[in-house]
Amino acid sequence: MKQKDNAAKITTDATVFATQLEIPDKVNRVLEIGTGTGVLSLILAQRFENIHIDAIDINEKASNEASYNFDNSVWHERLNAINVDFRQYNIGSKYDLIFTNPPFFNNHLQSKLNQAKNTAYHTDQLSFQDLAKGIELNIADGGELHIMLPEFEMKLFEMEINKLGFNCFKSICLMHKPNSKTIRLFKSFKREEISTKIQNGKIYIRDENNNFHPFYISLMKDFLTIF
């Protein structure tokens, strides 16, 4: 897995996001916003054999590296890396499912030397309002949105996506250990009224004894050689 040229490196929270994400059987066309190395799309292509993924990134080096990683995988025919600004992305046909681990730092101190890292982690190039509008433009009727963000930033994004008629139907807290703070939230949305109770859950990376949690192992065993 090549990630030398990527400002956004592979992280534990992002890989858990991809391994826990469930995709309905009817889903065929999938869009990833901000693919970075392409690892999340690779995980989903491995898990779900009927999906085809367009993985976009505004950074040309990141997109080229994702393309290299796709081309050197056994799932390359179902993966397509695209170098494009999501704010200008609209190919006409809609996606059954969109997923993203978007930039989320807002008004934070930025690097003076690494603009690519600023773009990958800060909302300057893709605000939550722009993200929500782009999702509305590109998602099919009945389509699903899956997104990973910290708690506070998730509240900000949810305000924007709710304005466009999307409602949460599933919320998962990622935590380092039981009783620790939430590291990230994984939320799922549909553009429709949700008549059933929101599905809530928690994922722990480690247990009370600081060993890897059994459920975390079950999620990651097909992707990490340590298991």
TrEMBL record:
Domain Methyltransferase small: 15-108
PANTHER family named among the record's database cross-references: TRNA1(VAL) (ADENINE(37)-N6)-METHYLTRANSFERASE
Biological process according to GO: methylation
UniProt-listed SUPFAM superfamilies: S-adenosyl-L-methionine-dependent methyltransferases (SSF53335)
Organism: Marivirga arenosa
Taxonomic path: Bacteria, Pseudomonadati, Bacteroidota, Cytophagia, Cytophagales
InterPro entries, per database record: DNA_methylase_N6_adenine_CS, SAM-dependent_MTases_sf, Small_mtfrase_dom, tRNA_Adenine-N(6)_MTase
Keywords: Methyltransferase, S-adenosyl-L-methionine, Transferase
Protein's name according to its UniProt entry: Methyltransferase
GO terms assigned for molecular function: N-methyltransferase activity; nucleic acid binding; S-adenosylmethionine-dependent methyltransferase activity
